[in-house]
Amino acid sequence: MNNGIPNHVAIIMDGNGRWATRQGKKRTEGHYAGYKRLKQTALYILDKGVKYLSVFAFSTENFKRSEEEVNYLMDLFVSAFKSDINFFIKNNVKVLFSGRSKPLSQKVLDVMDTLEKKTKDCTGGTFNVCLNYGGQAEIVDACKKVAKEYKENNLDLDSIDMNNFYKYLYNDLPPVDLMIRTSGELRISNFMLYSIAYSELYFTETCFPDFDEKEFDKALESYQNRNITKGGLKK
Length: 235
Ligand code: IPE
Ligand code: IPE
Ligand code: MG
Hints:
This protein is an alpha/beta fold. It has helices at residues 16-21, 27-47, 67-83, 85-90, 106-118, 135-152, 213-224; strands spanning 8-12, 52-59, 94-98, 126-133, 178-181, 200-203.
């Protein structure tokens, strides 16, 4: 069985905190290690021929964490998105963000906006960063966009279908083929609910800061050995 290279891979990058506490470090050090790992693994995944890579960087629920941790993560986003602009341009990677803007600070929103604009013509793969993202919120927000557009233009609601609904999501990306979650948790945690309808799922005990090239190859091998039917018959 060889299903080839998945077109769209999504990763729930979990376990930064546990990775750090197990080594007697602060949770925030785990987030920094996760960020370093992400740059390396993301390029490897796109180099393999994956066209779209979505990652869960911060959920809407993550605002419930301690002020210290939330502030650390927001500062990390600002400094990373600023310092990595050339990294993405050099590697020809188009960066997109998915999520709600409220209650992100203007500082964070500005660097997100700059990174999207500066990489908009890059063609070597799309890197979709889900930040202040929730899957149910995405579906609700998409329905609001549909309602507004259809009302303003007096359109026929029957023209909405499962395929063209994607264009009302935060970004118009194809369905997810392979969804990976690190650190041993067996949950979806409100990630990309619409787009994972027929996604293959891969769970690993490895915490995200240790999710390197070899770990991705294991996920890919598992994917390539599955009977993927997407609701049809097995080949
Ligand atoms: C994932 O790691 C990163 C974010 C949610 C920002 P966690 O911070 O959830 O790490 P654990 O699950 O507590 O180990
Ligand atoms: C999901 O991880 C969100 C991110 C990886 C950013 P969490 O650690 O926040 O999820 P739960 O709380 O274990 O479901
Ligand atoms: Mg977690």
